[in-house]
Amino acid sequence: KGKKPRVMYSIPTGANPTGASLPIERRKAIYAIAQRHNLILLEDDPYYFMQFSPQRLPSFFSMDVDGRVIRLDSFSKVLSSGLRVGFATGPEPLISRIELHGQASSLHPSGVSQAVVLKVLQTWQRQGFLEHAQKISDFYRQQRDTFFALADKHLTGLAEWNRHVSAGMFAWIKLKGIDDSFELISKKAVEQKVLLVPGKAFFPPGSGGDACPYVRASYSTATEEQMDEALRRLAVLLKENAPSASE
After folding, report:
1. Burial of residue 169 (number of CB atoms within 10 Å: 0-12, 13-18, 19+)
2. Whole-prediction pTM value?
3. Is the dihedral of CA 30, 171, 81, 224 positive or negative?
4. Which of 84, 85, 167, 235 is the most exposed place for a label (fewest CB within 10 A)?
5. Centroid of chain to Cα 94
6. How confident is the model over 204-240, as pLDDT tens digits?
7. Contact 197/215 with Cβ under 8 angstroms?
């Protein structure tokens, strides 16, 4: 009912906040829906090169036979977060409109950042970039394994989480015995110097996320010692604020 949408938005790989990735069968089904309803498919895929399996899942853009996919990539995830440089790939008529909009709004990303990215890519070439991306993927795989091992150690019985994260840097954790994580995470956890994001931050107002027991953790740059201590402190908070959770 109401107006039919014209655009479908997807973060298909290592999505923020859940860390979930769409399997290939679901990607094909979603693309078929876009074809059937004549939708533009906006593929926001900054974590594509941070997949942990040797064979990366195909992108929507690689499946596109109709010129309906606009793909968004980011160098901030694989080169340096401070660069804030990304790029869009897609049909020329759509990309030209994005370019015009950029000229009328932000003008363009930082010239210095663009020059740094250009020089790095010219030096590495395609193979060098892919080798670097593999190192990034290996690093985050180890971070993931360390985080979930420590979650098993400290949070078993206190929380639940999806451990089948195959890309990216995020863990989506449900706190047992907590109806809404906002107060606990935004105040009490911060007081203990544990930085997580309460789940309700990822829901638009009125969408049913006003009370949310989930939190998002990022294992991107934390050391094993920092993860261990942070999850220990979180476990203490959960035992103090949801004593029935561990029963």
Report:
1. buried
2. 0.91
3. negative
4. 84
5. 25
6. 887 766 789 999 999 999 999 999 999 999 999 999 9
7. yes
